[in-house]
Fold this protein.
Amino acid sequence: MKAAIIGGGVIGGGWAARFLLNGWDVDIFDLDPEAERKIGEVLSNARQALPHLYDKALPNEGKLSFKNSIATCVENADWVQESVPERLDLKLKVHEEINNFAPKTAFIGSSTSGFKPSEINQNGTRAFVAHPFNPVYLLPLVELVGAPQDSGLILESIGMFALNIRKEIDAHIADRLLEAVWREALWLVKDGIATTEEIDESIRMGFGLRWAQMGLFETYRIAGGEAGMKHFMAQFGPCLSLPWTKLMDVPEFDDALVNLIAEQSDAQSGSLSIRELERQRDSNLIGFMRHLKAQNWGAGKVIAQHEQKLHAKIGSIENKKITTGKGRVLPSWIDYNGHMTEYRYGQILADGVDELLIMAGLDLSDLSQGGSYFTVENHVNYLSEMKLGEEYHIEARIMAFDDKRLHVYQRVYTENGSCAASGEHMLLYVDAKTRKVGGAPKQIMEALNQFAAYHANIDIPNDAGKVGK
Amino acid sequence: MKAAIIGGGVIGGGWAARFLLNGWDVDIFDLDPEAERKIGEVLSNARQALPHLYDKALPNEGKLSFKNSIATCVENADWVQESVPERLDLKLKVHEEINNFAPKTAFIGSSTSGFKPSEINQNGTRAFVAHPFNPVYLLPLVELVGAPQDSGLILESIGMFALNIRKEIDAHIADRLLEAVWREALWLVKDGIATTEEIDESIRMGFGLRWAQMGLFETYRIAGGEAGMKHFMAQFGPCLSLPWTKLMDVPEFDDALVNLIAEQSDAQSGSLSIRELERQRDSNLIGFMRHLKAQNWGAGKVIAQHEQKLHAKIGSIENKKITTGKGRVLPSWIDYNGHMTEYRYGQILADGVDELLIMAGLDLSDLSQGGSYFTVENHVNYLSEMKLGEEYHIEARIMAFDDKRLHVYQRVYTENGSCAASGEHMLLYVDAKTRKVGGAPKQIMEALNQFAAYHANIDIPNDAGKVGK
């Protein structure tokens, strides 16, 4: 599959990363001579971030090319995404050209924040609105307006959440809400009620945390308590007539206001570079979404569904070498000593054992019918420190097994080939219904038998053999 | 310290929980005959939630009493918090009574969403605005208006974040922003552009995730990229004149609109009870804030600072028994088998070893000067399953030590007294600068010596002794 990205700023670059890291080839057209460097930076962020949402590997990255015309860029494209600046005359011109050269079967999305499809297509073109949110490589939301039905499926296949909007309207949905907050916030700064930093704290210390997992209405439904939504509205409704807002008027956007906000923003965030802020933001978003994934809630549900569909497995067997894990040390795994904290070794080793069981044919998603392996003993040797961002992989060896027991030995290797830790694991097969030990299925025994044969003639490691003696 | 809570709804109950769980005594006055039951439910939620933000124990819970008059409730109070319904006549009456009976030294806060201090105090009372956010026992934000300086310190001492607002204004800051979104959202529903569920998705799949960790301005600063905040505003500013909003008008809040929203909200969230929604919300907020704590960012910074000040330690020594951990199995610790996942045993055991080191006098917050212990080997025996919500504690025993090595044995006990796991740990003392082994400080050696003596005459456990042979 091939995506054509027209306009390679922060948003276009984010789209490029989202497609590329999900295995699509991506062609980019942008007149800016700096486009390649800028997109390189977005891509570098995305490569550090997106894979950490999932516990399975993403597909192999697609091929990235820069083109010097819209015509060559959109050639053979399955999806064309326009993200040029928010000027209607420019968008009209670009979409005319896309329309002339893109395949008739291609989906043509516009990242416009505010324009309606009827405005963009006033010269007979066939684009729809596909409005994403920065960082596009992490946040799932895409607002679709006037889009063909299958476009949503394609967005889901690259891990996004398509929100179909029923009627076209200026600024769609989310940007209307953001515009409302923006206007009120401008008044608060202009009137000297609060600084940009104080306004930001009033959001992220309170309702911002709520909105990362439930929106406006579900939050208020809870606030209404057992009496429900009608009760809440009866309480809150009359406030519409109170002077709680200056929204009936628009602040004058003059140089004084622009300077005031720029100065306050510098004082608030100037100690960190934009790159540092981006990395902090991405790390936080990953943390939130991984938590939501474990809860199968909100944005985490989107991540979990995408993960289920990922074909690529972490585990692999090559040259009789059984790899049961690979990844990179995440920021939240670092402890006060500045290296990967102790129990995270246990986590990646435990995940490795799970992967081995999956490779042997155990279906971890449906254990109610049969049984499962329970770990009864672990032994970890910590051989070297692991640092932030360091890549690692895990190799496994079956030490012994029968239909009750499974004895596995694993080694964690870092980028430079050294062994950072070894783990030895004794597991028992337990029937899900009787909770008694034994009776592991034949096909799993056969797979384990094959795995064990790979290492039959290799010496037993020095540090193995202390478990289950 | 004693808090008097006047009005025991969701907000008053949240305040009560926040104070109680931070060791304050709490007296409550509410005319509702159901108040005791309702506050009991908020407290039950809070007890399941707040302690999980921290890795140290909160102080022992204070004493909770229900009073039948404002006069007896505010007696001897250090802090009085009024959370009665949002009607000015009612607030005036209540504050007159508080003013007559509360100690002159008491802080008197009002949870009002909209009224200014000058309105509440028009009859000569001395309240200030202390506006919290639901759930009060988890979200840190309190907006202070017209408050004495020390009030912020008290709020910090119960784990909250005090935002001082410079000038009094209707609805303070956050509720002005919420009111703006609420108005625009009402238009979107009324005009049939989106349902309540679609609006909620447009928030929590996109900008809501951003706002849980950076607010409006810091997020836009990033969007402006290297060109900075002025560049962003030059792009976004002109939108103020575009028809991106219907905020210049107010939707009529008639029965038709109320019914439309109530029906859509039922369709969206009706499959879960309010209690279930609350638990899901709390679990998500805990997950976000724990992640932010690890990053020392935003709300997590508030949690981390409060944690540092918590006097109560997890670790304790009683009757020569060394307790190095206690807690409850959290939802995110459960795996596909329905019990506590394997590596979490490793985590609580590793935390236990850290606690033991703290008890022996090691300062984990400043290792740059001296040195620290590094774990080189762990051995865990998994003896029984641990279920969601189950309480546990960990007991430790020093097996052997010198100025290089420390050999510790720990057992995890569950509520019913059975041993769920044992862990054996070999650690080496490493000098922070030379990264060489040895030279553990004398006072730590002395503490370990004392600990070891407690068990000198007790048999070595059966499952110990396999490590470091």
Notes: The CA atoms of residues 168 and 261 of chain B lie 32 Å apart. The longest helix of chain B spans residues 274-295.
